[in-house]
Amino acid sequence: MIKSNILSKLNLTELIETKFEDSITIKNFTEGDIVVDILHNELGACYILKGQVELISYTIDGKEFYRYFSSGNIIGIGECFIDKNKNECEKKFGMDMHVLENTEIAYLPFFELMSLKI
Q1: CB-based contacts of 63: which residues, under 8 Å, 6+ apart?
Q2: N- to C-terminal Cα distance for the chain?
Q3: Could you write out the three-class secondary structure of the chain?
Q4: Contact present, 14 and 117 (Cβ < 8 Å)
Q5: pTM strictly above 0.70
Q6: N or C: which terminus of the chain has fewer CB atoms within 10 Å of its end residue's CB?
Q7: What's the pLDDT at 40?
């Protein structure tokens, strides 16, 4: 999928032909792949373009949370902004993403937005 199509689909057309569009990366994963330690501390999100994944979040006290995402879902936006307000035991310290079927994911580096003048 073309990066400008991704931004249009997300109603972010003002970001087309900007540094943000250039910084989007798209990767393909095959069923059974494990994407370890997603960088949830950076301001960014994963947009599932096609396929399905299982996300496992770990907390400091050893709890695990499982969620399933498929085409059209975005993972990570809430983590960028909400985690700051949680107490230490509730904060996630790592995530694993298990690819359940062939999947294409776009990484949207929202930290890039801070440097843009829109």
Answers
A1: none
A2: 24
A3: CCHHHHHHHCCCHHHCCCHHHHHCEEEEECCCCEEECCCCCCCCEEEEEEEEEEEEEEECCCCEEEEEEECCCEECHHHHHHHHHCCCCCCEEEEEEEEEEEEEEEEECHHHHHHCCC
A4: no
A5: yes
A6: C
A7: 46
Q: What is the pLDDT of residues 11-50, one digit of tens each?
A: 889 989 988 899 898 999 999 998 765 544 456 788 999 9
**Dist. CA 75–CA 82, nearest whole Å:** 13
> Residue for token digits 């501390």?
41
Residue in the block written with tokens 């709890």: 63
Given this model, what pLDDT does residue 48 score?
93
